[in-house]
């Protein structure tokens, strides 16, 4: 006759395994939470830098594109300061306006001298303010302020070719 031996199970064994499982799960949740916080911090900083860098590189590129004294002027429309770039080509004459409106650096290009609405401009980067000061006839200092209040300075000189 075969005798079946019943193993004695201890509740302490089950509690140890369950406790170990809860420990590993809580560590996993903690690591994921830390990773999410780091990711959000990095992306927030990258977006902040992206707005200021996009705006400053865009302005620099426009000034290089229209690098002559008679093509660049500083105007105002509806109490909004603007930078005006005029292309007096034989085939086509157009004017490009760059300004800050409704929290964005915007660009509007038109082929006529008619009025336009500030909302019509294409949003380029989130920007709270764009200010400039003249140091000479061809050297300007631009101050760009992003929505969080960070400020970036940019010096541009035209007729540098």
H-E string = HEEEEEEEE
Main β sheet profile: 5 strands, antiparallel
Secondary structure tally, helices:
1
How much helix is in the residues? 25-40%
Beta percentage is: 25-35%
> If you average the pLDDT, what whole number results?
84
Structural class estimated from helices and strands:
alpha+beta
Strand order of the largest sheet: 1-2-3-4-5
The Cα radius of gyration reads: 30 Å
How many strands? 8
- Tertiary shape: rod-shaped
Task: Tell me the distance between the termini.
Answer: 106 Å
Unreliably modeled segments: none
Characterize the structure shown.
Strand 6 and strand 7 form a beta hairpin. The mean pLDDT is 84. The chain has 161 residues and is of the alpha+beta class. It has a 5-stranded antiparallel β-sheet with strand order 1-2-3-4-5, covered by helices on one side.
Record the SSE blueprint.
Blueprint: H1 11-65, E1 72-77, E2 80-88, E3 93-101, E4 104-110, E5 122-126, E6 129-134, E7 139-145, E8 151-157
Antiparallel strand pairs: 1-2, 2-3, 3-4, 4-5, 6-7, 7-8
